[in-house]
Structures are given as structure tokens and as C-alpha cells.
Amino acid sequence: MTLMEMSALYDDSALRISGRLAELRSALRVCGSEDESRRLRRRMAELKPMLTQCRKLSCLTARYYDRDFTAMTNTGYDFADRAGLQAWLRAQSGDNSQRRQRLLRNLPRAVAAELTPRQREILELYIDRGMTMSQIAQQLRINKSTVSRSLRRTFQRLRRCLEYSL
Fold this sequence. Notes:
Blueprint: H1 3-30, H2 34-63, H3 82-91, H4 97-114, H5 117-128, H6 133-140, H7 144-163
Helix pairs in contact: 1-2, 4-7, 5-7, 6-7
């Protein structure tokens, strides 16, 4: 799968999640019971981070890796806006194999050197095993917000470290 195909896949997922959030907001407006309202709000709260992740992964895939390179699934996110990303993609439409090789070479080093053992554990559960933040929190017996904060800091650290390798 190419960089652009992967990015388009994440964009599509983000659109679907965004549509589902709109449906839930509409249902919340007409909801009569407090229990149903609470359930809808809880589901919306679960979907919002997923939407953010899909958008960030779309940017990440467009900038950094081809899905064939599985070692790169642990990279940090880029917070580029859509217009900036499109301009960057046009400018970088040539061969990016050297960048990918550098990133592949530096990613394991960055994970080993920059992350704490707990961050590596949470990252492995989240990326490699595909667990949700709630599942990770339950398995590690920590608060869900701790998992979220740890992942955010992990991605920030990796991004900061890997920016210099590109």
C-alpha cells in the first residue's frame, strides 16, 4: 500500500467517525432519558480521541511511511494542517526512500533511548496489539487519563526526536 493510499484510508476513517459523532449529537438532542443521554455522551467521549488519532495518522502516513514498513508504526504524530500537508506532499512527491530508511534506522533507537519502560509498554499495547486506551488502563490497572497522557507524551517525544533524523 502506498503512502497516499494509507493516508486516504485514515482520512476515510476520520470521515466515518465524524459522521457517527454527528449522528450521536443529533440523537442526544432528542434523547428523553437520562440514562440514554449518559450512554450517548460516553460513546461520544470514546469516539473523539479516535477521530483525533485517525486525523493524526493520516498526516503521519502521508509524511513518513509506507505501510509495508511495519517498524514505523511507533512513530510520533505530526500536527500539520491539511493545506500545509498538501503543499508538502506536492513538494515531496519524488522518491522518499532515503527518508524512510533513516526513519526506520532511527525509530528503534528513539524508542529505546527516549521512552520510559512504562511508555514503551503502553505504546506496544496501543500500537502493536491494537488495544484501546480503556483496555490498556484496565489491563495495567491505571486510570484511562493516565494512559492517554502517557501516549500523548510518548508521541511528542518520538516526534521531537525523529524530526531531527529526517
